[in-house]
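re the bet — no i am not wrong, look at it urself. input seq straight from the record:
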Amino acid sequence: MTKAVAILIPTKDSKVEGRVTFTEDGGKVKVHAVITGLTPGKHGFHVHEYGVWSEDGMASGGHFNPKSEKHADVTAAERHVGDLGNITADENGKATLELEDSHLKFHGPASILGRGVVVHEKADDLTTQPSGNAGGRLAVGVVGVAKP
């Protein structure tokens, strides 16, 4: 079993922060996220190309998409590897997420290690190409190997 973590750091003028853990087990990766400082409602949540933080979050590039697929929901068979759908913040601005995914990998061309994790200001509409019209970037983290 391999484990990785991304600590989400707010972009400029944001108070969004959190922790995302990825655990590889049996060919699938389990994702557990706890994020605070959000406005209530849905927010796009993705793995991006580059593990780089910047004031506006743009240095993290676009959604991680090594197979050149179309943007879609996390449940779609064909989608960006980085498409994780939306997280939903409660009235206190806290969002938690638990999901299991077979697209995310720790090895090979689809490896998420060293990539960025981004929380967006708006909901991902799950269809608009290439990024779901999710708006600005509120927090960015880098996926790094964690102690098991």
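see?? The mean pLDDT is 90. told u. also The beta strands are 2-10, 17-25, 28-36, 41-48, 83-89, 95-101, 116-120, 137-142, 144-146. so pay up
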